[in-house]
Specification:
The chain is of the alpha+beta class. It is built from nine helices and ten strands.
Length: 373
């Protein structure tokens, strides 16, 4: 027998059902919108690319560096922003700020140059791995052999073509020889005689950021047109070193960087360090003898406990000339080692003042030396 309900009961229970239906419809609608939005944002890799104005990319890369977000962001943003304007989605859905971490070779760690990091990321976004590897290899190799800042960037600064003008003079140029931030920056500072914290050095990196982004745009444009041809030729020294250290006899090194910049032209004949005394009471760094000298001189040091020792020679401008002992492990004692008056490149140094610097654990000391001819 059907139970009749009053109007009051209907309104009371019916309201519950109506609310449930409304929630159900709202949930379905929410899921549908979410699924639709996810579908919209899901763009298959590789992403679309369109030919870009290389010089506009160069200018934006330089200016973006000075945003306070650094070189990695600057190079990435210069390319990504131009693609946002040219193509729209999916590039409009990707914030350039994801690359901020790369500044200073990775939050100041001095590893991979941030400009290479940012530009390389764009290349890998728009090309399959096989082609991306070829173009990124070209970008890295080109970076090690080109003079930075380029003539174009230097002239843009002088003519105030950049929209951010922190320094409008021609900057000295140098070839870094390495894709590493710390090597690239230090080599330039040594040549230009500016400190790493100077406005000039920062402007150098800003111009470099634009240059790297511009070259990435150029080779991507060429790839799009089917005209890309790699130009980088690795130095012969790399093949010579890797013949043993790579897949050859030793098979312990997997790298493409120039070896001699860090290891010297003949790292196999490191100076012989001889122990000439017992355990001293204190750390000592003795004056070299003879001094003045020509062509070689002997350097002595004493350590009262086992230490990791570094001994190097610098010129009067603070430029590294020779690594004599690099991270050597020494027991307590007094030692001497001979410096033959050559640089890491194997070249005979000129007459002048040099400084030997010892670091043994926390102990540091320097000594002035004079080469005469």
């Amino acid at each position: 027998m059907e139970k009749s309900i009053t109007r009051k009961e209907f309104l009371k229970t019916g309201g519950k059902y109506a609310t449930g239906v409304a929630i159900g419809i709202g949930t379905v609608q929410l899921l549908t919108e979410s699924e639709t939005q996810a579908h919209i944002l899901s763009t298959p890799w590789p992403w679309p690319y369109q030919q870009l104005d290389v010089e506009q990319v160069r200018i934006l890369g330089h200016d973006a560096y000075w945003s306070g977000k650094g070189c990695c962001y600057g190079a990435f943003h210069a390319l990504a922003e131009k693609l946002r304007l040219a193509i729209g989605t999916p590039w409009t859905d990707l914030p350039s700020e994801i690359m901020i971490y790369g500044h200073g070779g990775g939050v100041g760690w001095g590893t991979l140059c941030g400009a290479l990091n940012g530009a390389g990321a764009i290349i890998s976004m728009v090309l399959q791995k096989a082609r991306s590897d070829v173009l990124v290899n070209e970008l890295f190799g080109w970076y090690t052999q080109v003079l930075f800042p380029t003539d174009i960037s230097n002239q843009y600064a002088v003519n105030h073509i950049f929209t951010v003008n922190m320094y409008d003079q021609i900057l000295p140029q140098n070839m870094s020889g390495s894709p590493l931030c710390h090597a690239s920056v230090t080599e330039w500072c040594n040549v230009a005689y500016f400190t790493v914290s100077s406005t000039e050095r920062k402007e150098r990196c800003a111009r470099l950021t634009g240059d790297v982004a511009a070259y990435a745009a150029k080779i991507l444009n060429d790839e799009l047109l089917g005209t890309f041809t790699p130009l980088y030729v690795p130095p012969a020294t790399i093949a010579a070193c890797m013949a043993c250290h790579g897949n050859g006899t030793l098979n312990k090194v997997a790298a493409k960087m120039e070896c001699t910049q860090c290891h010297g032209t003949d790292p196999h004949t490191a100076p012989v360090t001889e122990q000439i005394g017992g355990v001293p009471d204190a750390y000592q760094f003795h004056q070299n003898y003879p001094n003045p000298f020509n062509p070689s001189t002997t350097i002595q040091f004493s350590i009262p406990k086992a230490e990791t020792v570094n001994l190097a020679v610098y010129d009067v401008h603070g430029r590294l000339i020779k690594n004599i002992i690099a991270n050597g492990q020494f027991s307590p004692g007094t030692y001497e080692v001979r410096w033959d008056g050559t640089s890491n490149a194997g070249l005979r140094v000129a007459s002048g003042i040099y400084f030997s610097r010892l670091q043994a654990g926390t102990f540091q000391a320097s000594s002035k030396m004079s080469m005469v001819k």
